[in-house]
Amino acid sequence: MSLSREFHRNFTVFAEAGALGVRILAGWDVLISKEEAIKYVTNYDRLPLVGFEESPTGVTLRHHGAVLALNTQEADAIVDLIRQAYHLPSS
Q1: Which pLDDT tens digit goes with each residue over 4-52?
Q2: I need a labelling partner for 87 at 20 to 30 A (CA). Which of 3, 4, 44, 49 fits?
Q3: How far apart, in whole angstroms, are the C-alpha atoms of residue 5 and residue 1?
Q4: Closest by alpha carbon to 13, among 5, 22, 1?
Q5: CA 40 – CA 32 distance, rounded (Å)
Q6: Shortest CA distance to 16 belongs to which of 64, 60, 77, 73?
Q7: Are 83 and 71 in contact (CB under 8 A)?
């Protein structure tokens, strides 16, 4: 079973989480392994230049070469999706 979320801007941001990991479509495909997605959520805004990082304009998600600029609502929904998919406790 996989869970998904979708947001609309000038383009659609789509995220889904399954057994192998998380896929985020936001202009291009970003694939994050289950292990890395869990690490990003459990270390939210604590890892330098990787994972979720809060900024004055929203949240940046950095994964390998990908950098996604998300608004707070999108980031919260993706984090919640990862928490639900992998049975992580709420913060």
Answers
A1: 877 666 777 899 999 999 999 987 889 999 999 999 999 999 998 999 9
A2: 49
A3: 14
A4: 5
A5: 10
A6: 77
A7: no
